[in-house]
Amino acid sequence: MPFARPTIRIGVTGLARAGKTAMLTSMAANLLALGAGLPALPALSQRLQGRGIRVSVAPAGADPIPRFDYPAHLAALAADPPRWPARTDAVSLLALDVEIGRAGLAAALPPTAFRLELVDYPGEWLLDLPLLEQGFPTWSAAALARLQGLEIAAPFLGFVQGMPAQAAADETLAATGHALYRALLTRLRDECGLALLQPGRFLMPPPGPAPPWMAFFPLPGRSRLASLLADRYDRYRDSARRELRAPGFGRIDRLVVLADVLGALHAGPAAFADAAAALDAAARALRWSNVAVPAWLAQLVPALGGIRRVAFAAAKSDHVAERQRANLKSLVARLTQTQARGPTAAFALASVRCTEDIVWQLEGHPISAVRGRLIGADRLARSYPGEVPSDPPDAGFWTHPFLSLPDFEPLRLPLGGRGGVPHIRLDELLVFLLEDLLP
Ligand SMILES: Nc1nc2c(ncn2[C@@H]2O[C@H](COP(=O)(O)OP(=O)(O)O)[C@@H](O)[C@H]2O)c(=O)[nH]1
Ligand SMILES: [Mg+2]
Fold it and tell me: Per the count of CB atoms within 10 A, which of 243, 280, 303, 307 is most buried?
C-alpha cells in the first residue's frame, strides 16, 4: 500500500576539508548497515528498542541538486589500503528511504517511513549569512579591519589606500581591486589557514559563469567607485538570498556545522581566533529564540525559519584520546554558546575513525594517546598531539604548541563496507538529529 513519505533534509556544512564528504559517506554506510541488522550505530539501535529499521538508497528524484557519489566514496574507503574519498567542491545530495517498524499493539500498522536527504552544503556560503544584515560600509570596515597588520595583505591594502577619495566608477579599477582581493582571500585560506573569509562565494563560487556584479571588494569612503561596489554587494546579497530560498537549498530541516577545531588549534593562535570567529558568525546567524531563527533572518530567508535542530561538531576527534574528546566537546559548546539542552547541541566526533585509544608510557608517565597507520606506512604510529583545552585557550596555552596531526589512514571497513564505517559518536549525532522522528 503506498503511503505519503515525508522528506527530512539534513544539511552538512563546514569549510573546505572540514570532513563533509567523509561524514555523508559514513552516515549513509552506517545507516545502511544498521538496516541490514549490523551493529553499526549502537546509540540509534538502543533508541529503536528492538523495532526493525529498513534503509535503502533512494532513486534519483526530480531535484536539481547533483547527486552525492556515494558508491565512489564508499569504494575509496573500502579499498585495500583504504583511501580518503576524492575531494569534492560542489553542493550534492544523497537520499535514503527509511522505514521504522512499530512495536506492541501498533505492530500491525504501517511503519513510520521518511525520506532522509543529506545535503553537502559548502560552509563558505554559511559565512555569507552575516552579510545579509550588513550594509556595504559596515562590511567593508569589518573586512578591512581584519586585514590590518597582515603582511600578506599589503598589496591589496596598498591598492585600497592609494585610491583617491573621488575615485570614479571605473570598471578597470573595480576589476583590479576584485582580482587582488580574491587572490588575497585564496592565499589567506591556503597559506594562513584562515576561515572567516567573506564573501564566501568568492572562494566557493556557485556553478555557472560568474556574473559581472561579483566584481567588488571592500572599500571605505563615498566615492563613485564605492557606490558602484556597494550596488554590486547588494546584488550579491540578493542572489545569496534567492539561492537560500530556491528549492535546491531551501527546506533544510536540520543542520550539522562541522569544524576542524583540532586543525585550528594546531595552526596557532591567529588561525584559531579566526576559526572561532567563523564558528561564532555561523552560530549567531543560526541562533534560536524558541526553536526559531531570529526574526530578521527568518524574514529574509524563510527557508532557514524551518531549521529545527543544529549540531555544532568538531570533526576528526580520533586524533585525540577519549578524555581529550570531552574537552573538545566543551570547547565547541563554548565557542558556539551552545547550551546543554535544546535545539542545538555540541559534539566531538569522527566520521571515519583512523585510530584506537592507547595508554602510552612517555618518560615514565602514562598518557592517553592514540595509535593508527600513517598513509603509506606499514607499521602503526602512536600520536599525542597535546592537551585539548575545554575553554577557548589563553596566552599560556600557546606556549606549548599543539603538536602534529598525522595523516592517518582510515581503519579497515568491516565486511568490506557492508558493515558500515568505524566512527566516533556519529550514532549520537543521528539520534539528536532524528530524535522527534524516532518512536
Ligand atoms: N582522522 C580523521 N580524518 C578525517 C576525518 N574526516 C575527514 N578527515 C580528513 O579530512 C580530509 C577532508 O575530508 P573531506 O570529507 O573530503 O572534507 P570536505 O572538504 O569537508 O568534504 C580527509 O581527506 C581526511 O584526511 C575523520 O573522521 N578522522
Ligand atoms: Mg567534500
Answer: 307
| Site to substitute for ligand 1 among 24, 27, 84, most atoms within 8 A of C-beta | 84
- Non-local (6+) Cβ contacts of 245 within 8 A are 301, 302, 303
| pTM exceeds 0.85 | yes
Other CB atoms closer than 10 Å to residue 390's CB: what's the count?
15
Provide the domain count of the chain.
3
Q: Who lines ligand 1 at CB under 6 A?
A: 14, 16-22, 84-85, 87-88, 315-316, 318-319, 350-352, 354, 408
First to last CA, the chain: 21
Does residue 32 sit in the same domain as residue 144?
Answer: no
Q: List the domain range (segments joined by +) for residue 390.
A: 355-399
Q: How far apart are CA 283 and CA 302, in angstroms?
A: 17
| Per-residue pLDDT at 66 | 85
- 422 and 311 in one domain? yes
Helix residue spans in 191-252 (DSSP H): 200-203, 224-245
In this structure, the residue with its CA closest to atom 11 of ligand 1 is 17
**Residue owning the nearest CA to atom 23 of ligand 1:** 84
Among 201, 217, 243, give the residue marking a domain's end. 243
Mean pLDDT by 10 residues, the chain (439 residues): 72 88 98 97 94 91 83 96 89 93 78 91 82 92 94 96 95 96 94 88 85 96 97 94 67 87 91 87 60 47 64 96 96 86 88 97 91 94 93 90 89 94 98 89
Closest atom of ligand 1 relative to the 123 alpha carbon: 20
Looking at the structure, tell me whether residues 21 and 113 fall in a common domain. yes
